[in-house]
Amino acid sequence: xxxxxxxxxxxxxxxxxxxxxxxxxxxxxxxxxxxxxxxxxxxxxxxxxxxxxxxxxxxxxxxxxxxxxxxxxxxxxxxxxxxxxxxxxxxxxxxxxxxxxxxxxxxxxxxxxxxxxxxxxxxxxxxxxxxxxxxxxxxxxxxxxxxxxxxxxxxxxxxxxxxxxxxxxxxxxxxxxxxxxxxxxxxxxxxxxxxxxxxxxxxxxxxxxxxxxxxxxxxxxxxxxxxxxxxxxxxxxxxxxxxxxxxxxxxxxxxxxxxxxxxxxxxxxxxxxxxxxxxxxxxxxxxxxxxxxxxxxxxxxxxxxxxxxxxxxxxxxxxxxxxxxxxxxxxxxxxxxxxxxxxxxxxxxxxxxxxxxxxxxxxxxxxxxxxxxxxxxxxxxxxxxxxxxxxxxx
Length: 394
Known about the structure:
This protein is mainly α. It has one domain. 57% of the residues lie in helices and 0% in strands. It is built from 19 helices and no strands. The protein has helices at residues 51-54, 86-101, 107-120, 123-133, 139-152, 158-161, 170-182, 189-198, 202-214, 221-230, 234-246, 250-262, 267-275, 281-293, 297-309, 316-322, 337-355, 361-370, 374-391. α3 (107-120) runs parallel beside α19 (374-391) and α7 packs antiparallel against α8. The relative contact order is 0.15.
């Protein structure tokens, strides 16, 4: 659930406590060649979650933070990496993720950090940090915290989640319904389905569909099918289809295979990311084809990540090169160059995380330490932990 804020300049970089990180030196792969393809104008990895609640985030800055990310690593460490241990690199990456979940400057970063915490920390440890997000002033962060607690199914968090079933924000209430049902509370299903069918705000209906799909229960397919056919909002219909595809609905899968080949704008990468979670010969063939032939860089990166999810490393070189991509389209009022760069680099980092090659650790560590956009830092840190958890010896 990557959150895109189209009208906001990148916030200050994440700064972690001074800690000299020495990353693994590997055989260098050239990443100097600029990729000339233009990204799609829409956020390719958007999950229709809580973007509207985060769009008007404050643009405060703290003097002395911006541009100092390399300095916190200690003199000389960033420029002369030395092999030390996986444990040290993982500790540093987790520090960045923790800092992101508490990032004071931007609620979108906190929401992304909370999602990362739920993916890389042990459930009990993650729950303590995620619960802080339940009290956040921004609805998007509370939404992310509820969804994350539902994902990790930490029963100790139930008393903290229950009040949010009455939250003033309808999307937060939907996320609370999801979390509580994951923890064994089924008393909110009627309100949840009513939000999907009747809430006047389409973003709430999208979130209701997203959360229903996360249950993994085919009993909700009837509700999702109706939304996919009858809702007046294209985003709701698409989100309902994605949820159906995750639940194994063959019609929904066929629709995403179609969009992977012919979808316009964000539809193509969205379809490819969805297909990455689905097994099947036709799906795999589609991912391979789009990696080679998709017209958008973001679509090819989505294919690379989808293939990585399924154990294929065909997109490794593309993802590695894209960590340094810096050829945005200028002059798009609804898609700033900084956000285009953020999307491509973040997608590249997460694709490398799913591919899982240890050779990517050094370039990912450099990106995590030097990148000024904390959303990219979080993606790089998350990818590092994904690779280490997959490849480190017990």
